[in-house]
Write a structure and sequence with these properties.
Elements lengths: L6 H11 L2 E2 H9 L2 H4 L4 H13 L3 E8 L2 E9 L1 H12 L8 H9 L6 H28 L6 H29 L1
Antiparallel strand pairs: 1-3, 2-3
Helix pairs in contact: 1-4, 1-5, 7-8
Length: 175
């Protein structure tokens, strides 16, 4: 089965770096909100609860004077195995940028060969996407709506820039 990113796997990847509270996770994600549109507290805490129920994480409750207790979540060995299984799965063709970026954020969990394969797969996807945009733009006549033209131009520029980044990054990783 091909890999998809889920908030559960992403949380496991973050906890694999270091134990964190739900608030710590949310604060980390908020800093990346412009990039990956971080999940709401409404989805974060149920995901943590499910991870705890599935014994993929543990929680330590730390009492604090004059403050509510702090719950610190840590990944378990079973959680590391689940994370590794997800990491070892190939990326899903045609996925959007968000799952790709979320996987990169936890790339410290990827063996270099898996990271290279992930980037190569993304390169194929983006090259295919760019070709489709070019073909769409060529098929349209001069009377195309300005908004559609701008959207196509943006998509083409974004795909071209991402391909350049992928090529540079792959070259550095392979050398």
């Amino acid at each position: 089965m091909a890999s998809t990113v889920s908030i559960r796997h992403f949380i496991l990847g973050l906890l694999n770096r270091q134990p964190m509270s739900g608030y710590d996770i949310k604060r980390f994600l908020k800093g990346l909100n412009w990039l990956i549109d971080s999940p709401s507290f409404g989805s974060l805490y149920p995901a943590l609860h499910t991870l705890l129920k599935d014994r993929l994480v543990t929680v330590e409750v730390i009492s604090r004077q004059d403050k509510p207790p702090r719950k610190i979540y840590s990944i378990t060995e079973t959680g590391r195995q689940a994370l590794q299984e997800w990491v070892d799965q190939p990326p899903v063709p045609g996925t959007s940028l968000k799952p790709f970026l979320m996987r990169l954020i936890v790339a410290g969990n990827l063996p270099q060969a898996a990271l290279i394969a992930h980037l190569q797969q993304r390169r194929i996807q983006v090259a295919t996407y760019r070709l489709a945009i070019e073909q769409t733009a060529q098929a349209m006549d001069a009377s195309i709506d300005l908004g559609k033209r701008l959207a196509l131009d943006y998509g083409l520029a974004a795909a071209t820039a991402e391909l350049a980044w992928l090529d540079d990054t792959l070259t550095q990783l392979i050398e």
